[in-house]
Amino acid sequence: MLEQLKAHYKEALTTDKSISNPNDYEWFYTNSGEQLGILKRHLTEQEKQLLSIFLTPIPQNQPFTNKQEFIWYNFLIHGNTKQIDLQQNHAPCYRFIQFHLKQTTVYKEDFCAAVKELLPSNLIIIWENAHQGVIIEEKNEGDRDVVSFAEFIDTLSSDLYINLRIFVGQVYPFSETLREYYMMEKQYFRLALAHISKQNILTIEDVFPLLLIKSSINNKELQHAIHFIDSIKEDDELFQAIKAFFECNLNVSLAAKKLYMHRNSLQYRIEKFSERTGIEIKHFKGAVTTYLAMLAHQYLNHENRQDA
């Protein structure tokens, strides 16, 4: 198709994204992900509509470097699921790392290049405006973080002279509900920015107590917030072991005795929980969040049984 278009539009068509007058062109993505532009003065309104059937129009003033960024932008920001549904090579799971900058003078190209160098997984970076955006991380189930987000923040802040805050989200399987999780985590981040002033790295462990304090939280919001429990709720042995660990005031020896198991066996289950959920329950905030989440899980189950 591209060769046919070139033959028809000749010099009016370009695939060079670095041309000096990009605003004089209407830009499109081909099905193979190649970007092309056609001079506006060579296009009638009828031709634009016809091309939109076979090509994907690119909105003006959006710095997309590839079609994948464009598809994710339309999905997350505008709720357009048409193109995301056609993706064949998506990852099993994704995680959103939302970021907020005080500065608006940062060069986005430098920021994106630095992020991709520091984070080892495949990434898509979407800017919502000059201050904020989201890093979309491809993940596999059970992946463990090999990067220190404290070092990540320090490196970006010192190299690019920026004041950066991030919200590291949970890991979700690929589905259309990803946008719903993204929108909920966006609310969590906004809540944290407003109420947690001296912390640059934020997670569900920081926000969950704030959510419970909010009088307006509903069951659906609560279910989203405790998504990490989903990875263990069917493993009753693990669930009960962690519950006993909390009931014994985080005392491994006492909890192991209560469960009639060796201390090392309980220690293994604690590590297994952290691997599955990404939450360190030996840390205060992780323990509080998990304990409250387990109570919330039981509460929601009770509510569902009552409604049935």
Automatic annotation (TrEMBL):
Domain PucR C-terminal helix-turn-helix: 239-296
Matches recorded under InterPro entries: CdaR-like_regulators (IPR051448), Homeodomain-like_sf (IPR009057), PucR_C-HTH_dom (IPR025736), PucR_C-HTH_sf (IPR042070)
Superkingdom classification of source: Bacteria
PANTHER family attached to this UniProt entry: CARBOHYDRATE DIACID REGULATOR
Protein name according to UniProt: PucR-like helix-turn-helix protein
Organism expressing this protein natively: Paranoxybacillus vitaminiphilus
